[in-house]
Automatic annotation (TrEMBL):
<keyword id="KW-0712">Selenocysteine</keyword>
<protein>
    <recommendedName>
        <fullName>Iodothyronine deiodinase</fullName>
    </recommendedName>
</protein>
<dbReference type="GO" id="GO:0004800">
    <property type="term" value="F:thyroxine 5'-deiodinase activity"/>
</dbReference>
<dbReference type="GO" id="GO:0061074">
    <property type="term" value="P:regulation of neural retina development"/>
</dbReference>
<dbReference type="GO" id="GO:0042446">
    <property type="term" value="P:hormone biosynthetic process"/>
</dbReference>
<dbReference type="GO" id="GO:0042404">
    <property type="term" value="P:thyroid hormone catabolic process"/>
</dbReference>
<dbReference type="Pfam" id="PF00837">
    <property type="entry name" value="T4_deiodinase"/>
</dbReference>
<comment type="function">
    <text>Responsible for the deiodination of T4 (3,5,3',5'-tetraiodothyronine).</text>
</comment>
<keyword id="KW-0893">Thyroid hormones biosynthesis</keyword>
<dbReference type="InterPro" id="IPR000643">
    <property type="entry name" value="Iodothyronine_deiodinase"/>
</dbReference>
<comment type="similarity">
    <text>Belongs to the iodothyronine deiodinase family.</text>
</comment>
<keyword id="KW-0560">Oxidoreductase</keyword>
Length: 119
């Protein structure tokens, strides 16, 4: 959520170049785990229903693209090494950009630079 505005700006600026998708994975900063004081009150998901409920909070902030939810086995998070967050660009089913792991490696500006080259 910290850089959601930057992500939304990417979606707005590059929607004619790319399709965007958010995969909501396990909660990195759950209120019953390693939480920030200013974070949303989201407990670690113990069921798919809880994960779906947490994803609805993201949807309320209008990410401007579809949001899907990872399985409770965390298959997508494991496959993409995305915990706590990571940005990817895929083209024709292949990864053409792999960002660093968040929070410090989560750099929407790098994705912006990459997508500008595709325009």
């Amino acid at each position: 959520m910290f850089k959601l505005d930057q992500f939304k700006q990417l979606v707005e600026d590059f929607r004619d170049v790319a399709d965007f998708l958010v995969i909501y994975i396990t909660e990195a900063h759950s209120s019953d785990g390693w939480a920030f004081n200013n974070n949303y009150d989201i407990s670690q998901h113990r069921s798919l229903e809880e994960r779906l409920s947490a994803a609805r909070i993201l949807l309320q902030n209008d990410p401007l693209c579809p949001v899907v939810v990872d399985e409770m086995s965390n298959a997508a998070a494991i496959q993409y090494g995305s915990h706590p967050e990571r940005l990817y660009v895929l083209q024709a089913g292949r990864v053409v950009y792999k960002g660093g792991m968040g929070p410090w490696g989560y750099r929407p500006q790098e994705v912006r630079s990459f997508l500008e080259k595709l325009q």
